[in-house]
Amino acid sequence: MSTVQQLPVTLEDIEAARKVLAPIISLTPVEHSRMLSRQVGSEVYLKCENMQRAGSFKVRGAYVRMSKLSDAEKARGVVAASAGNHAQGVAQAASHLGIKARIYMPVGVALPKLTATRDHGADVVLHGTTVDEALAEAQRYADETGAVFVHPFDHPDIIAGQGTIGLELLEQLPEVDTVLMGVGGGGLLAGVAVALKEKARQLGRQIKVIGVQAENAAAYPPSLAADALVPLDTVHTIADGIAVGRPGQLPFQIVKALVDDVVTVSEDALAQALVVLLERNKLVVEPAGAVGVAALMENLLAKHGIESKNCAVILSGGNIDPLLMLKVIQRGLAAGGRYLTIRMMLPDRPGALASISRIIAESDANVTRLDHTRIGGALSMGDVAITIDMETRGHEHSEMVLNNLRAEGFEPVITSSAGGSVA
């Protein structure tokens, strides 16, 4: 394993970054979660970077990077590309430093993120349909105009800025032994790993650092296995904040040397984690910020042989489009057995639908939507198809409803969650 001193970012870099950031960031709280602690069998704490200024940790790295620019570089302005959090971080930092900022964002970016970036004073240009396309255009603009390109994760100052979260966490929770966080390009994971691993070494103890990726946007596991950067062919996840198809070169060096493991979680687990954080911890967190909680809920620590008494999850951001939140909540409820959608064929005669309604009512489920049709290629003459959405109290209750319908001769088929796939 490489030593910290041989890596592109050191503990001294991170401590210096913390001094730079002192006037402009908030010390975000660390909250204990009783529900997650009971479920995991370890004390679980949440580092709430979703409460940071601009709604995520990204302002840390952006401000450190831009504060070191020369007067001539500041005069030329900065350019960046992002689907949201990095855009807002760069825009906020530029506003504090009096620097002109141009931000490229993909067409179709969430309106709240677009509006917030503009509200910080940045010039926003919509380009391409993916972050990679926006990044390429931002780099082209930098080459053409001399503006300084502020990369979202692949720069030592960015990594050092993000690493300040690790210093804060260790002071707020000295007994922490395991820390989980989401991974896109790897700037956050790399910076926090340097801070925690070196501080732990100085204290004569160990702290495990775990990265978490969405399974449909997981470039780190194959890259670590190959010991080389392996780009993904496609990236498709509700966690847009970590939807990165290729690890950063500098973060990869650090993650390879210091991080204990990188695990993946499903889209359903992400949705359930967001619902749990909202419902039980009263925290609004975007899917990318909830991946660490999703890993705990899928029992990934035990599955990977990781023992922990005091576990912390970095909730990296809370910038979520309300429309996406609505879809994710529906999916999370469905994944948790609290929202059931079924489809059935019925004879087209009086009383058939009333029987279905009676069974559902007697099963103490609540119908929220019903679709009734006589037309369709799979329907026989004299049949109708109905689709019913209903609220249930969990998987056992859902199974009871299904069994009660089957007991009276109906053949319910479970379909996707209401509203369709949100991935």
UniProtKB/TrEMBL annotation:
Its EC number is 4.3.1.19. It is an enzyme of class 4 (lyase). Keywords: Lyase, Pyridoxal phosphate. The keyword Transport does not apply. It comes from the Bacteria. It catalyses: L-threonine = 2-oxobutanoate + NH4(+). Catalyzes the anaerobic formation of alpha-ketobutyrate and ammonia from threonine in a two-step reaction. The first step involved a dehydration of threonine and a production of enamine intermediates (aminocrotonate), which tautomerizes to its imine form (iminobutyrate). Both intermediates are unstable and short-lived. The second step is the nonenzymatic hydrolysis of the enamine/imine intermediates to form 2-ketobutyrate and free ammonia. In the low water environment of the cell, the second step is accelerated by RidA. This is threonine ammonia-lyase.
